[in-house]
Amino acid sequence: MILIDPPLWPARGRVWSHMVSDVSFAELHAFAAELGMPPRAFERDHYDVPSELYAAAVALGAEPVGCQELLRRLTKAGLRRRKESRPQTVRR
User: Fold this and answer.
1) Are 41 and 12 in contact (CB under 8 A)?
2) Does the residue 82 lie in any domain?
């Protein structure tokens, strides 16, 4: 199932949603392509979807869910990919 949270995330002069799959990345990439999302919009485990495409994603079948529900279902599916922590630089 494709899930999308509300467009609440401001960045680069726009407002964004997160779109994920709780089934597979293959399902997510296929849905994103159908929606017209460029591959560069994929980040680790989700697509950043501009608010202008939110209604189109829902019309194509994405299930609107809250942010916490999206994260819970992504994690439960084993598809959550956390940011890798960067080693701190040691100043000498």
Assistant:
1) no
2) no
